[in-house]
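explain this:

___
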Amino acid sequence: MRRRGFTLIEVSLAITVMAVGVLAVISLFGFGYRESSQSNEDVASAAYADAVISQLVMAISQTNLPWSVFKGIQGKTAEIGWGYYVSENGRTLGGVDGKAKDEYSKWTKQLNWPNAWPAGAAGDMKAALVLQHDVNSRIVRIGFRATRTEPTLMSQPLYYTEARFQGDPDK
């Protein structure tokens, strides 16, 4: 009487197929971890951008702000833009966070806005802030990026808004 069963070749093929499937699933864990980390950084960056940009929009949109003060608002990023944070060869310069805070401080001082940089929203993020204002324009363009590592600053999402002068242009 012959007993029917699996041959050694059939068992080897089954193990090979299972091994390929398990390796494919295991390889997805690294991808999932990377995407999860990037998602966490994107959410933190968006919250940080909201905290900084909303303060600036409120400062710029004050209804009691005289046109003469608004017209004279300038800073380094108004002239240079993102070049304030990037070298000629495209590398991010060091100390971007300090530069962004300096720009924020200059603008809020010119606007007579008492609120300080919203540091509580930052965590370990480093920020870059660009404010562009043409002297006779009623609009200020605000750009913001944040990252955990400075070299990746320019590859991070850009948060952008515009704020309009709300005061009396005759003052």
Observations:
- The chain is about 45% helix and 15% strand.
- Helices lie at 8-60, 67-71, 76-80, 96-110.
- Residues 8-164 form one domain.
- The beta strands are 126-133, 139-147, 159-164.
